[in-house]
Design a protein that fits this description.
Layout (H helix, E strand, L loop, with lengths): L6 H12 L4 H15 L10 E5 L5 H9 L8 E3 L6 E6 L4 E7 L11 H10 L2 H4 E5 L13 E3 L6 E3 L4 E3 L2 E3 L1 H7 L1
Parallel strand pairs: 1-2
Antiparallel strand pairs: 1-3, 3-4, 4-5, 6-7, 8-9
The chain binds zinc ion (2 copies).
The site of one zinc ion has 6 residues, from helix 2.
């Protein structure tokens, strides 16, 4: 597989998936570009796991460009509200963390298009602190059997079932009944 790493093309692909161009997607493009450029360490297969610390626009770029997706279980969201992105390669046990630097990418008064362009002109190294981290990937999601919620009847993954007054119920029902 030959990868074209032209930032412009990566951006176009990400925007197509995400629905609009925005600084968040541009950040995700740069994250992805770094991983793609280090293809020896991080080939794009099921063995790469992304751990992201936000659920903003940037994650769509990561999903579109790196193929780490919620559906495959190799995209893990930690709800920390930070622009940090960690990648683990289960094959060669490499891991790397990109953390957005605390620098401004042009004042908020700049037109959005210009801010996006400024970001895309940067190298990943310019805007991220990039460091090797300990290889300690989270477990991939497993398929668990479903059982029926005793309140609404929806088949629900057994690990998500809660107990309410002796009944096995799903999370939304539990929250309603509380
Ligand atoms: Zn967006
Ligand atoms: Zn229910």
């Amino acid at each position: 597989m030959t990868l074209n790493l032209e930032t412009k093309e990566l951006m176009e692909k990400a925007v197509k998936f995400h629905g609009h161009a925005c600084p968040g997607v541009a950040i995700g493009v740069l994250v992805s570009k770094f991983i793609l450029e280090h293809g020896n360490d991080f080939s794009l297969d099921e063995e790469i796991v992304a751990v992201v610390e936000n659920d903003n626009c940037s994650i769509d770029a990561v999903q579109a460009l790196l193929g780490t997706t919620f559906g495959k279980g190799n995209l893990i969201h930690l709800d920390y509200g930070k622009n940090n992105f960690t990648f683990y390669n289960r094959n060669n046990k490499k891991s790397v963390k990109l953390s957005l630097k605390n620098i401004s990418f042009g004042s908020r008064d700049l037109p959005r298009e210009e801010r996006i362009q400024k970001l895309l002109d940067a190298k990943p190294e310019d805007i991220f602190n990039i460091e090797e981290v300990k290889f300690d990937p989270p477990q991939l999601a497993q398929i668990h059997e479903s059982i029926l919620c005793e309140n609404c009847g929806d088949p629900t993954m057994s690990t998500r079932i809660k107990e309410f007054k002796g009944k096995k119920v799903c999370v939304p029902c539990y929250e309603k009944l509380m």
